[in-house]
Amino acid sequence: MSKTLFASRGNLVGLLLLAVLLLVVFPLVFDIFRLNLVGKYLTYAFVALGLVLCWGNAGILSLGQGVFFGLGGYCMAMFLKLEASSPENTKIQSTPGIPDFMDWNQVTALPWFWEPFHSLSFSLVAVVVVPALFAFVIGLAMFKRRVGGVYFAIITQAIAAILTILIVGQQGYTGGINGITDLRTLKGWDIRTDHAKLILYFINGGLLLGALLLAQFVQQTKLGRLLVAMRDKEDRVRFSGYDVSSFRIFVFCFAAGLAAIGGAMFTLQVGFMSSSFIGIVPSIEMVIYCAVGGRSSLIGAVYGTLLINFGRSLLSESFPQLWQFAMGGLFIAIVMVFPDGLAGLYQTYAAPLIARRFRSGRGGGRIAAASTGSRVH
Fold first, then answer.
1. Would residue 120 count as lying in a domain?
2. Which candidate, 170, 166, 181, places its Cα nearest to that of 105?
């Protein structure tokens, strides 16, 4: 009982410290340019949170999470692009009222699947529903046939490659390799101003903390315990009468939804979305974020994402050619030396030291109180 209480208290303290760092320290320390970069990094943390549940807890390694990140981003970008492509803004085009890349590719009418994205409400729902539905189809096809392990990882990697090729090839409908760019306003609100970027940063940070709480809730429920049991002893869980495939489908769709929210916030903060965030390389990088933070730690996943991306910025500014080598070296070091990532380092070294200090402080206080009491008597 006491151990559980201490763990809950530790999680609460960790969450509060993270909230102070994101919502107080960073806005005070960084200028708007750097703060917007941090906001971009935090959008990747949504993917890392989903991977903790999907890979760390359930043992499902997906190398295609960039697919769901990109789909969420494209759903938001389609709404923003349609708003920026009003007849007044596009009157110099051959066909006013459609996105510029469609006009360049001689598309003369807005495609039917773009029409619903005139509505912000539909777009916000689609941000989560479209990627989650796509994940459901993949999960149903794979997990019902008991496809898992390295085979599932390879399949998700192939899906990321196929979707990238599809988006690039359909340039007239998707923007191709350049993606959907020149996004300006959200319901008339200019998202390119410094004030808008500051507000979007706080919205992003609040959503991330909310997603972390939701993921933590899932971990602490019976479902979360079943996910871990499935990872360790799948046959025993199946023989106990549970439908393992249904649980796997759920956690895979849940992770896809989190990744999609991150993609939508990325589009809002950065101002574009392209196929470069859907392919194999960004998907593998997102797995590295999770591994560095600790694949069983939600808070560690956020710190791992920040650490990797801060390192990328610092190294790429000074040594742009060395960054990929540094990324590979860091991943190898984590896997071989610190398999539990930053969270494992904290649990192994920092947490026992803090606990000893805490106990010694309380013990010292009791001794001082006892000696004071004896002097009074």
1. yes
2. 170
Q: Measured in whole angstroms, how far is the alpha carbon of residue 175 from the centre of its chain?
A: 24
314-329 per-position pLDDT tens digit: 877 777 777 777 777 7
User: What domain range is 6 assigned to?
Assistant: 2-365
Does residue 146 lie within any of the structural domains?
yes
What gap in Å lies between CA 292 and CA 302, rounded to an integer?
10
Query: pLDDT tens, 103-120?
Result: 999 888 999 999 999 999
pLDDT tens per residue, range 35-64: 999 999 999 999 999 999 999 999 999 999
CB atoms within 10 A of CB 339: 11
Instruction: Answer whether residue 74 is part of any domain.
Output: yes
Q: Is residue 371 part of a domain?
A: no
| Band of residue 303 on the pLDDT scale cut at 50, 70, 90 | very high
Contacts of 72 (CB under 8 A, 6+ apart): 127, 128, 130, 131, 259, 260, 261, 262, 263, 264
- Of all helices (H) and strands (E), which one includes residue 82? helix 65-84
pTM of the model: 0.89
Which among 348, 256, 222 is positioned nearest to 294, based on CA atoms?
A: 348
